[in-house]
Design brief:
six-stranded mixed β-sheet; disordered N terminus; 27 helices; disordered C terminus; about 750 residues
Length: about 750
């Protein structure tokens, strides 16, 4: 048998006991109405006030203990099983000690005879004791089940506190604090409190869980899902489950779908939850159908279900349990909502003949039409079809408007999600950059060994640019754009850089000038580390990009002065250099015109002038001759050689091999993200070798890439990161990785 499906017999028995517990629990709470509900509403004489409060607290911890038994038996975490031993077990014993009070609370003081509900309750407590003993005796101490350290105790206490908070029964606030006069109708104080609590719970859960292990996130969210499910259906009983109370309202349905979706990792149900249920819950939160007091059972039930239906699916994605949803997932949600909509339409139409209180998704009654005036008129358009003694009334126009509006809201939600992904990535990048900067500064201080950080970290005489073990991998790319690249460029030389489109030239150049962060390695400019000493390194660089990106609403003079100000060039020096270069490039007449009026070649010239205004030690050019007329191209080549003769370094890429061969001292060839070789042009001149031949042999003829892929490579945009793809490997809550198996209390390593 495949090892993926093998399970330890001891673990299997433990989970089987938990499943039996769950079945008994669900049957018991749905079998008959609980007499304790009358105590909650204050209409039962069975308990005094003190007794009622005690039983409320006992019911609360019993409810939490039941959830622990159901959820924690599926985890191998020491803390999860300690919860069974040191919380669920004492609660079970306490329930058996107070079995008389529990009987009165469950079936009433005047009840006589056999009670299936009470028998089920006793079985639950007995099963809890059996499971706890099974963990201690059969599974044993080797799994680390006992409390051994202060940290273990604190983790256990923190978990118990969190569980009790998540498992607060919806009737407990009213039982402890009584009913209030505050209501939760739209725009009231109670409504503001609810909205504020929803946002606080959402943000609090995210920041609490975001750095935890995947298994810890799963079990916490599964616990909340199960708590929401049981809380919602704790007032549903088979003897009072009329059609009007069926869970076909959108957010009622979410309480059922959330634990199922999270457990099964179902990719069809989740888009429905993420778009339809979240949208419906958000509408219900802002326009609640409530008129009851804030702490009443009805209000708490409504608020709890809709709050969880709103925040939990969003947390599933933001915490990484489900991949980010794309447009194809939105289309799946549209299909799911259409199916749901048809079901509730026919459910309303048919059941209304027997129970006129039915209004699934508010498609009956005046809840929507009384709030939106044109829906009232749409609801007057009725198609009646008599069938078998009943009449089916279809409000076709009303249905179409509501359906289209909700589809529109789901579409808006999709674009909000997309924007949130961008903001989330940016925030994560800022956070990572801050962490990286702190680490870089720490390492820099160590490397400087007491020297000022404004000094070169690794000054090597004669070397202007040193690239060591450089690698760059774009997000979600299958392989590095550049891998293990090493290069040294000397002072006073013109250095050429050749490669096909997509070979890694632009990635390397943008990393050299500090535009792109890189994955591995170091890049040093005259001894300054571009990652750890970016300001010092960039002061030495003049960069001419391949797209002449300039501020087109400035004049040429304003733009050059702007760049000169950034580099701190004095007015005297900038005037001297600008006049000299303007004369060579014949740009004096247009220097005070707006850049947007410039031709392509003129924009390239102004970019070159701006890059030279501070007389950089390293002049980096990416395809500098593109768009230049022959005279201007000649001037640029002349200036490159002149700049190098002054003791500076010119590093440039070009597709024009003849130019590279004539003006360069040395040339590097890159192919497939790897350095092929560095060639001395003087040696080529002596031996009569052709740079073009060497380039083609190394870039095309010896490549292992199939011909079709080479053609695609030539037409693709250079070094663009691939689209973000979700990980195809689904998270399995029952299979833990080695790193997660080292996780101790509450998922902390």
């Amino acid at each position: 048998m495949n090892s993926r499906f093998k399970i330890n017999p001891k673990t299997f028995i433990l989970r089987a006991l938990a499943v039996i517990f769950l079945i008994i629990y669900v049957v018991r709470i749905t079998l008959v109405a609980d007499s304790f509900n009358e105590v909650i509403r204050g209409i039962s004489p069975d308990f005094s006030t003190v007794q009622a409060i005690f039983m409320s607290l006992l019911r609360w911890v019993t409810y939490a203990a039941a959830l622990i038994v159901i959820i924690s038996t599926f985890s191998k975490s020491r803390n999860q099983r300690n919860l069974i031993l040191f919380f669920a077990l004492p609660v079970a014993v306490l329930n058996l000690i107070f079995i008389g009070a529990n009987t009165t609370a469950m079936i009433g003081a005047n009840h006589s005879g056999f009670s299936i509900a009470m028998l089920g309750f006793i079985f639950e407590q007995a099963l809890t004791i059996i499971i706890a003993l099974y963990i201690v005796v059969i599974i044993g101490h080797k799994t680390g089940l006992l409390i051994e350290t202060k940290k273990t105790i604190l983790a256990l206490l923190a978990s118990i506190g969190g569980i009790l908070l998540c498992a607060i029964p919806i009737w407990l606030p009213q039982q402890l604090f009584g009913r209030t006069d505050i209501t939760v109708s739209f725009a009231t104080i109670g409504h503001h409190i609810w909205v504020g609590l929803t946002i606080a719970i959402w943000i609090g859960l995210y920041f609490f869980l975001r750095n935890k292990s995947m298994h810890y996130k799963f079990y916490v969210l599964m616990f909340i899902c199960m708590a929401t499910f049981i809380n919602y259906f704790s007032f549903y009983h088979l003897d009072s489950l009329t059609p009007a109370r069926w869970p076909l309202h959108l957010c009622n349905l979410a309480t059922v779908l959330m634990p199922i979706t999270l457990l099964t990792r179902n990719r069809f149900l989740f888009p429905f939850l993420y778009f339809a249920n979240v949208t419906g819950a958000l509408i219900a939160i802002f326009i609640p159908d409530l008129s009851n007091p804030l702490l009443s059972v009805q209000t708490m039930r409504f608020a709890h279900a809709h709050t969880m239906a709103f925040i939990l699916p969003i947390l599933f994605v933001s915490l990484g349990l489900f991949p980010r949803q794309k447009f194809r997932d939105l289309k799946v949600a549209f299909v799911g909502f259409a199916i749901y909509f048809v079901v509730v339409v026919f459910g309303n139409v048919i059941i209304t003949n027997f129970d006129n209180t039915v209004q699934f998704f508010f498609l009956n009654g005046d809840f929507l039409s009384s709030r939106i005036f044109f829906l009232y008129h749409a609801q007057q358009v009725v198609i009646s079809i008599p069938i078998g003694g009943i009449t089916l009334d279809f409000y076709i126009l009303f249905y179409l408007i509501v359906f289209a509006a909700f589809i529109g809201f789901m579409s808006i939600a999709y674009f909000i999600y997309l924007r949130s992904y961008i903001y989330g990535d940016e925030a994560e990048q800022i956070k990572n950059n801050k962490i990286q900067k702190r680490l870089d500064r720490t390492r820099l201080l160590e490397d400087m060994n007491g020297r000022e950080i404004t000094e070169p970290v690794n000054k090597i005489g004669g070397i202007m640019l040193k690239i060591t073990n450089f690698s760059k991998t774009y997000a979600s790319a299958k392989k590095p754009a550049v891998e293990n690249f090493n290069l040294e460029v000397k002072e006073g030389e013109v250095f050429g850089f050749l490669g096909l489109n997509g070979a890694g030239k632009s990635t390397t150049i943008k990393s050299v000038v500090g535009i792109l962060p890189f994955t591995e390695g170091t890049i040093e400019v005259n001894g300054f580390d571009i990652s750890r000493q970016p300001l010092e390194a960039k002061k030495l660089i003049g960069y001419v990009p391949d797209n002449h990106a300039v501020y087109e609403k400035l004049t040429g003079r304003q733009y050059v002065n702007f760049i000169a100000d950034i580099y701190g060039v004095s007015q005297e020096d900038r005037d001297k250099r600008v006049v000299e270069i303007l004369e060579k490039f014949k740009l004096e007449a247009s220097f005070d015109n707006l850049i947007k009026t410039y031709s392509h070649g003129m924009k390239q010239k102004i970019t070159i002038i701006a890059a030279l205004v501070h007389c950089p030690k390293l002049w980096v050019l990416d395809e500098p001759l593109t768009g230049l007329d022959p005279q201007s191209a000649f001037e640029v080549k002349e200036y490159m050689q002149e700049h190098a003769r002054s003791g500076n370094t010119v590093f440039f890429s070009s597709h024009i091999i003849d130019v590279v061969e004539k003006i360069c001292d040395r040339v590097a060839i890159i192919s497939g993200g790897k350095l092929v070789g560095v060639y001395d042009m003087k040696e080529f001149a002596k031996t009569g070798q052709s740079l073009e031949k060497v380039f083609l042999e190394n870039s095309v003829l010896n490549t292992s890439v199939p011909e079709k892929k080479v053609k695609k490579q030539k037409i693709a945009k250079e070094e663009k990161p691939s689209a973000d793809k979700p990980n195809k490997k689904s998270f399995n809550p029952f299979n833990r990785t080695k790193s997660e198996k080292t996780t101790d209390q509450g998922g902390e390593k």
